Amino acid sequence: MEKSVILQVRRYRPEAETEPTWQSFEVPFQRDWMVLDALNYIKDRLDGSLTYRWACRMGVCGSCGMMVNGNPVLTCATYVESLLPGPIRVEPLKGFPVIRDLVGDLTDFLAKLERVQPWIVRQDQQVPAAEHLQTPEQLAEYKQYSMCINCMLCYAACPIYELEPAFIGPAAIALAQRYNMDSRDQGAQNRMDVLSQHDGIWSCTFVGECSVVCPKNVDPAGAIQRYKVAATVDWFKSLLLPWGKR
Ligand code: SF4
Ligand code: FES
Q1: 84-107: buried (b, 16+ CB within 10 Å) or exposed (e) per residue?
Q2: What are residue 10's phi and psi, to 5 degrees?
Q3: Domain ranges in the chain?
Q4: How far is the CA of 238 from the centre of ligand 1 (A)?
Q5: What is the CA radius of gyration of the chain?
Q6: Whose atoms come closest to the Cα of 211: which ligand?
Q7: Please, which residues bridge with residue 27 across strands?
Q8: What is the pLDDT of residues 135-179, one digit of tens each?
Q9: Which atom of ligand 1 is closest in space to residue 174's alpha carbon?
Q10: CATH 3.40.50.2300 corresponds to the domain 107-240
Q11: Which pTM does this prediction carry?
Q12: Distance, CA 146 to ligand 1 centroid (Å)?
């Protein structure tokens, strides 16, 4: 006998509703289905107007993050069977303004990301004569932080981001660290100038939920703590060597 489960999905259609509402769907499913498969079933068979993001279906693009039963998860990596008997409640990621149904507005995050210059910064502006080579050991230094897929689960899990939307947030700090630790980069001081402000690393109270929910083991909480140590050293240096800490 085919099994089915109830999905309770948060809907918001701004042209018709002033507040979000819940809508229930009965979805027949197969053993290997993820929550994203169940949403696709609804869109294909029951209500084509249901709106959500996804692309790769394999935990790489980072676009299918949603709150499922109150937890931020990648819906393409969460088995329906692990949530039985249901109902399964699906909502947009917490902490982001909702554009429509399950789609959050990431404009604020993208602006924050740009502030930490998540690219290789060189102080010498000239085009190099050859590529900047790197050893496997130098790659290993930052590889963990480079695994971030910008899925925003860590923001949805962060109680500080919920209370202080100005907080630059876990993934932006982890990505800053990814470039700081890259042997080819020379932009660490630029990033420190941004992240040592009130809405940077010091807003974090080390709840650590960001690292718990991260599907790629990036450990943004660890990145923030490393940054705090570096910022403290920077501050002491500025006291001892006020004429030229840089
Ligand atoms: S740090 Fe982890 S949870 Fe946060 S955006 Fe990157 S991959 Fe997603
Ligand atoms: S669809 Fe790409 S990470 Fe889930």
Answers
A1: eebbbbbbbbbbbebbbbbbbebe
A2: -75, 125
A3: 3-104, 107-240
A4: 32
A5: 21
A6: 1
A7: 5
A8: 999 999 999 999 999 999 999 998 888 888 888 889 999 999 999
A9: 1
A10: no
A11: 0.87
A12: 10
